[in-house]
Amino acid sequence: MERKKCPACTDTCIFTKSLPPIPLQKCYKTKDCKKTSGYACVCKKGYFLNDKNKCVKKDKCYSKPKTTKKPKTTKQPTTTTGKCQKNEIWKNCRYACEPNCMDEYKKPRPCPKLCKEAGCECKPNYVRNDKTGQCVKPSDCPKTTTPFPTTTRKCKKNEVWNYCGSNEHFDKCGTACPITCNNYYNQPKVCTKQCVIGCVCNEGYIRDKQTNECVLPLHCSRNTTYECPKNEHFEKCSTDCPITCSNHKNPPKVCNRMCRVGCVCDRGYVRDEISDKCVKRSKCRTRH
């Protein structure tokens, strides 16, 4: 690892399923680094942060855990030892996204190629019934008319059952106009009061339609098509001192070189600060 001044980001061992695969990043904001004098420890170039908070080469990201000690004489649990239930098998490297009966009601999601801790998982061609916790044939899954059951699986103390993915939660009355990677820079100003039942992104996260995951705005897929209002277009690195109605007659001569990501006015248009729209210079309203 190496120390970097916050804000700083580091690549992780979790990759998107785009072509080519892109590593998702873990970012540290300035406020997160107050206790460490404004610095964060991030992986060096070419290294990736794994689930044990260690920096490893890419080919070591998904390696199975190695045992340094010889196993005890007791046998590993198998389906014949009684440790696993019916239609389950013991796995030292369990699949991170075990199939379950709710899969047919949810959109496909990319799954990280990470080993979960050793334990029991469903046999091939079987899925987990979340209501009973048992492994059954898909044809034996309970039929439901709603995408989410009204009852939840029994959880441990201080836990709640969540059918949604990372960085999202279930909401019985979510918005009909969610913020996505596509409309992040052109968010809907008017929306119906209709309740939408389902998974919604946690605060600060938005939906990436290409992966159907909730991500930070900085982590949207690279080939995302961003929507902009009329007379505007998207730029990844625009000026931090745009020409506006108030300064178009005397534009700033000095400007810092900081890149601003977002929608900017098309050529021949300037920003009207009152309406926040891009207009012809002749349409600028006079301020009194």
From TrEMBL:
InterPro entries: Ser_inhib-like_sf (IPR036084), SerProtInhib-TIL_Domain (IPR051368), TIL_dom (IPR002919). One of its GO terms (molecular function) is serine-type endopeptidase inhibitor activity. Residues 84-141, 164-220, 228-284 form the TIL domain. Gene3D superfamilies: Laminin. Keywords: Disulfide bond, Protease inhibitor, Serine protease inhibitor. CDD domains: TIL (cd19941). It comes from the Eukaryota. SUPFAM superfamilies: Serine protease inhibitors (SSF57567). Belongs to the serine protease inhibitor-like (TIL domain-containing) family. This is TIL domain-containing protein. The lineage of its organism: Eukaryota, Metazoa, Ecdysozoa, Nematoda, Chromadorea.
